[in-house]
Amino acid sequence: MLGIQTEKMRLETTESFMETEITGSHPDQGIGVNVYDENGHYHWLAIMWDGLVDAHETDDYPLEPADRTDDEQRIMTQVKERAKLAAQQEFSDADILTAEWKPAELDRAMLALEKLHVDDFAEKFRDCYRMLTDPASEPEVQEEESAEILHQPFLVNDDDEVAYVPTPVLQYRGDDGEVKFTHKESRYEELLGEPHLTKFTITLPPIRFKDGDYEFPDGFQIFIIEHLLAQLRDVYRHVGEEPPEYCMQTDIWGKPLTTEDEEYYE
User: Fold this and answer.
1) If 0-12 CB within 10 Å is exposed, 13-18 middle and 19+ buried, where does residue 68 land?
2) List of residues 6+ apart from 13 with CB closer than 8 A
3) The predicted structure's pLDDT at residue 15
4) pTM attached to this predicted model
5) Which residues have C-beta within 8 Å of that of residue 183, sequence separation ≥ 6?
6) Which of 16, 91, 90, 77 is nearest to 43 (CA)?
7) Is the Cβ–Cβ distance between 167 and 183 less than 8 Å?
8) Is the dihedral of CA 168, 221, 107, 245 positive or negative?
9) What DSSP element (H or E) covers 47?
10) Which residue blocks in 91-133 are alpha helix, DSSP H?
């Protein structure tokens, strides 16, 4: 299994291209953050407690996005995301970012999966493997080619244990070309509001593994952990940071879109 690094180890192995500083906070005016970007240019941002960027001031880039180059737009966006992460790390109880965009929370998710006995993993993630590798096994999905994305949520409790894994939801195209979804569990919807449970989601297109690759259940358990490791890698890229070296040891696909992707700005 992969060895999950602690927050301190992860920070010590991260090469930072930006410097951040919290300048203050106010119940109504949010959190002030200074950021120096990869070019050494200064930005000041006001991040609200719900994650809204209320202000972003700098003298070194055009005010209007339409007047910026692609590289300037990338830097401005990454500065915004880096400021949100800095604010979240300073005020951990705030709801600025969802768990899947917080490095420390992704560490918890990987740890929870790593602690899960392989027999328990097999029981909880059997449907995930089946629907990912054989989407047409779902009665609602008439043809394998119509399946697009599998969403496998799981909930982690305060003891860093996998508490609940619902049946995954498969996004597919119906005969009429419309996007459709397979059945969602009502029990899972009820648990989402529990404060001691944190939601994570594995999001992947249908996959055909080569024979012998990531065999179920133990190999697939490693695959899912590496997928979350790839998400962690891409979270760092999303905020314009060089990921820690241990994140670069996986070439598995991570988060769908980050600020490094051209499609992010469409």
Assistant:
1) middle
2) 5, 244, 245, 246
3) 57
4) 0.88
5) 140, 167, 169
6) 77
7) yes
8) negative
9) strand 42-47
10) 103-115, 118-133
